[in-house]
Amino acid sequence: MAPATAIRKLGPGHAARAAARGSDAHPAVLCFPHAGGCASFFRPWQTLLPAARVHAVQYPGREDRILDEPPAGLRELAESVAEEILAGQERYSVLFGHSMGAYVAFEVADCLREAGADVPTLVVSSAAAPALRPPVPYEDSADVLRYLERYEPVSPQIRQEEELLELILDYIKDDLRLVAGYREHVGKRIDARLVAVAGQTDIPEIRSRFRQWRQHTSGPFVPVVTPGGHFYLRDDPPAALIAAELARYTHPAPAAGRSSWERAS
Q1: pLDDT grade for 20, boundaries at 50, 70 and 90
Q2: Alpha-carbon distance 77 to 6, whole Å?
Q3: How far apart are CA 186 and CA 227, in angstroms?
Q4: 210 to each of 29, 36, 153, 224, 246, how far by Cα in Å?
Q5: Which residue in the list 125, 216, 230, 259 is annotated as catalytic?
Q6: Rounded to an integer, what distance in angstroms lies between the CA atom of residue 259 and that of residue 85?
Q7: What is the predicted pLDDT for the residue at 193?
Q8: 125 catalytic, yes or no?
Q9: Active-site residue among 55, 93, 99, 185?
Q10: Tens of pLDDT along 33-65?
Q11: Contact at 8 Å (CB) between 85 and 92?
Q12: What's the whole-model pTM score?
């Protein structure tokens, strides 16, 4: 039976072993994958962030949740993750969402705000501001494939395996349906630091619209441009950025100024 929970701990490692000795000294980041992505996408980050605990959300329909039904909407997905956070002992310093994951992470932050809990720093990656996101197809396989090609080519090996391709497209369609129907962002603001990251060669609809995330926080807003395209984090994960944001919690005084990655952006 697939686990009912959504959050996966991506250790082991130094941080996982140290957690038992006192979690305050080892802050945690919760990662939200792109459409079609899995929690395991972020597994290498635990090595890149040895002083932190790296966790990731597993969406329904993939890996160990392959039998779980998709949620009715993106807000419902976010609520289930927020409920798990609020019911558990883990407290996250940073929520990191990539592409579709940016919208899920934003809604989780809003759920925490509504519950009166502390809202972590939110890092939204490769995502236009919610109201300005490009149209998203999710019904016809050919349309979905053309859409995906704009962001990252589908490998010839997967294209040749028709059954595998259809399986992958099924849960990508489920995710894209959530993005296409996402409306709950209207007029919504969180009171937290918000960092928006975009690749220099990402599609124009994202490069020109990611700074408008500013409208969704009453806290500090930091736009960051990084080398690479939509999936810049495959070759160059933003470990320095995440580490700097986590350091604001463990060493608030020296981290209060601009970080090295922030000065370089």
Answers
A1: very low
A2: 10
A3: 30
A4: 22, 21, 22, 9, 22
A5: 230
A6: 28
A7: 97
A8: no
A9: 99
A10: 999 999 999 999 999 999 999 999 999 998 999
A11: yes
A12: 0.91
